[in-house]
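Protein record

Derive C-alpha cells from sequence
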Amino acid sequence: MNAQPHKPRIVVLGAAGEMCTIAVQRFCGAGVDVELVLYDLDEARLRNLAATLPGTCEIGRLDIFDSDAVRDAIADAALVVLGAGPYLKTSKPVIDACIAAGVDYLDYADDVAPTLDALDQDSTARERGIAAYIGCGSSPGLLNIMAVDAAGELEQVESIDVCWCTGDEGARPYGAAVIEHLFHIAAGECLLWRDGKATTVESYATSEQVEMGGTLGTTTLYTCAHPESATLPRVFPEARSIRVLGGLDPAPVNAIARGVAVAVRDGDLDAPTAIAFFQQIMQDKPGTGEGWRHAFPELVRQVRRGEETVPGLLKFVANSVVSRHLPYRGGLLARVTGSKHGSPMEVTVRTTLGADAETSFLWSSMGTITGTSIAAFMVLALERADLPDRGGVFSPEEWVTPAQFYDALLRVGTPAGELPIKQITAASGPVPDQPSTAQRG
C-alpha cells in the first residue's frame, strides 16, 4: 500500500487577530491541502476561527516571546506566518527562530525598522536556503505589486509614489498594535528616496492633495514612514524619487493621531493612555481631557494649513457627538512617472472601491484588504516551498510578478471586477483605463 504524501505544515502565529483571521479563512478558501496549525494568546477566538474553516486544524495558546515554545511550535513547518504585532517588537524573535529552525517565514510587517532588520539577514537566509517573505499585506504588499505593475509600462522610471488611505470602520475598534503602528508613522522619522538616494525627513510633516478616485476623490495625504520607500529602491535604483503618502478618513483623524503621537514620542503621554484615547475617539466616545489637550492644537494647525476646512471639522465633531459613522472609504494608488520611447508618461494603478464598499469582497475594510492580500501571498509562498534556490529575504516586489499576484487574488476569492485598474497618461493626454495585468491575460 502506497504511503499518503505528507501535507505541508502551515503554522500561523497570532492567528486570532482580525486581519490574520481573514487571511486564514481566505487561504483555506483557495482549496489548499495543508496541515494547518493556529496559535494565539486568545484561545476562545482561535476556537471561533477554527469553527469557520473547512476540515480540521490544530489550535493552541502561544506566547511568541517564549523562545522555547516558538521553537517547538514551528518545528517541521513548511511555512510560518507571523500575524502578531506590533512588528517593531515581534518580527525579530520569530524570524530568528525560523532561520535557526530552517523553515520559511512570512509576515505583513508595516514598519521600516523591522523591515531593514530582516533585510540584514538576507545572506544568512540564503546560506541556510530559507525564504523570508516580508511586508506581505496590503501596504506594503499589494501596493508594491501595483507599483511594479505601473512601472512595467515605462522604459525609464523617474518617480514612484505609493499612496494609501483607510477610513472609519464604525463601532469596530482598531487593535492596539494597529494604533501603535499609526503613532509611529505619524510622529517618527520618515525614510524616503530623494534625488536618487536614501534620506530622512519628519513623518507627517508635509502633505499634498492626491486624486485617489472612487469614493475618496481628492484626498489629503501625508509623507509617512512606511516600508515601501525602503524596499522599492532595491528594484528601481534609477528612480529619482520614491515616497509613501498615507492618511486616514475622515481628515481630522489625521490631526488627532498626529497630536497624541507627538505627545507619546516626546514623553508627555504614555502609549497605553494614548491608544485608549484614540480607540475611544474612533468609536465615537468622548475621550479624555488629557488626550484632547494634545490633539486639539494639531486640529487647529490642520485647518490653518488648509488640510481641512472649519465646516469639515465641525461636521466631524457633530457626527461624533451623535455616533454617526460615515461609510468606509479607503483605497490604494501607485503613481509612477517616467518615459517610454522618449516621451514623458505617468501611469497609475488604483483600487476599484465604489459606493458599495460594504458588499465588496476585497475593499470593505482595512481587514479585508490586508487579510485577502496575505492569503494570496501565502498561496504563492507555499508553491515556492520546494524551489532549491528560494533562499533569502524578499520584499513583495522581489519575488512576485503582478500577473502572479492578481491571479492569486482571484484564487482566494476576489472577483475579477475588484482587481486594480490602470491608467496611462502620455504627453498627448490620457489613455482610457486599462485592465490589470491579470485581466489582460
